[in-house]
Every structure is written in structure tokens, then in C-alpha cells.
Amino acid sequence: PKVIGMQGTFANNSFTITGGMVMGRSASRCHLVFPQNTPGVSNVHCELRIVNGGLFIMDRGSSYGTFVGNQTRLNPNQPYQLHDGEVFYLAGMQNSFIVRL
Fold first, then answer.
1. Sheet holding 20-24: strands in order across?
2. How confident is the model at residue 70 (pLDDT cuts 50, 70, 90)?
3. 19, 26, 50, 62: which could join 45 in a potential S-S bond, CB 3.0 to 4.6 Å?
4. From CA 62, how far away is CA 13, in angstroms rounded?
5. Is the pLDDT of residue 1 over 90?
């Protein structure tokens, strides 16, 4: 599975998920690191993980939230299974990605 940036810092960049990937602003704790001045993105914002062949996303207690689809905010620390073509974003649509399975 991979995610492709739709808008913002990672627009048109593709990232293959192998095991797991943490997203946020902390260079020491994240695999995909946003610039420090990215509005709304927490130091450790969310995590993608492959479990039993499925791709899951989990908000890691971010201040401004992780969203899927049309503005559905994820509850912190609860995995949500992503599907092919589904969009997720960190804090706002300016930090959006599309899922390709």
C-alpha cells in the first residue's frame, strides 16, 4: 500500500507503507516529517500501520485532529481501516493524502 500527497508539503509525492509510518513535525519520532511551521500538524500527529494485510490509520492525540473522507474526525488512539481511493488529512485539507492499495 502507498499514500500519495494531494495538497501541501507532500503534494504529488508517493510513500510506500512497509509495516508502519508515523507522521508529524518531530524529526526524531516521525518517518514522514512536516516542516516545523506547518499549521495544525502536531509533533507526532498520526500513524499508518499494516495489520493483517489491511492499512490502518490512528490519530496519536493530535491537537487539530486527523480526518478521513468528508471531514470525519478520528478518535485518538483508535485504529481506522483505510480503503483504496480514500482520502485522509492532518488538521486540514492542505495536508491531504489519497490511499492506493
1. 32-33, 20-24, 46-51, 54-59, 80-82
2. confident
3. 62
4. 23
5. yes
